[in-house]
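Render this sequence as a predicted structure.
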Amino acid sequence: MTLTADSGSTKCDWILVDEEKGIIFKSRTKGINPKLLNPKQIIQIIEQSTEIIQMKETITKVNFYGAGCGDQKSKDGIKDILTGVFPNAIIKVEEDLVAAVHGTTDKPGVICIVGTGSNSCYYDGDVIERRITSLGFLIMDDGSGNYFGKELLRAFFFAKMPLILQNKFAKAFNLNENVVLEHLYEKENVSGYLAQFAVFIIENRSHPFIKEIIDKGVFEIFENLIIPYAKELKKVPLHFVGTIAYFLQEDILQEANKRGYKVSSFIRSPIDNLITRLYNS
């Protein structure tokens, strides 16, 4: 049996497939990112899924696609952890861009992830090419969930947010100064914490203040993540993957049309398409 995982920094989707019986179960845990969590924390997340742990001895292969797995050290670290959890399985670890590509298309295109974080690549139908080195949520991840979370917190604590939005924001989240500071500087998975605020962007997108924040984020997605592939985009389509992109389709399409880019798809989560491709290959 093969267990496949597609993980961002906020959530991780798991699917167990038996070659004869098909899908055994689908499960979701907290996100697993080796750049943000230590091995003990990652193991605890996996062990919180009763379905996964009950089947761990019978799993013969694990395909793990994850944010933060773009370098060999991170891949090896995740592989060691998964080998300990699944003793009878062959472990394969790839970065989340691989899942985004293969869960989206089998033809040449530019694929952009916009979820908790953001990233992009060009796929020629065979090889995945990255032209951007992602430095994570501290200084990159343009237009992502954690990007919008930072923008909202800055606007709130700098008192730049309109009063009606301030009140709504304060009711929706615990914005006690000490609580926010603890999450930002003492707890794990800061990008996931920041990304939780992005739901406020989606729910209040019609407000001019929020629309301005969205427009800025979408503009930066294209300026920094898409433009490096401008030459290819004259011939191939653009695909977006991730929850933030999925809910900001209208805004993304407007910016793409301004630039003359063809957007072919918005995939909220690529894992179902990925499983179909892996299972039928």
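Summary. The chain has two domains: 2-96, 103-269. DSSP finds 13 helices and ten strands in the chain.
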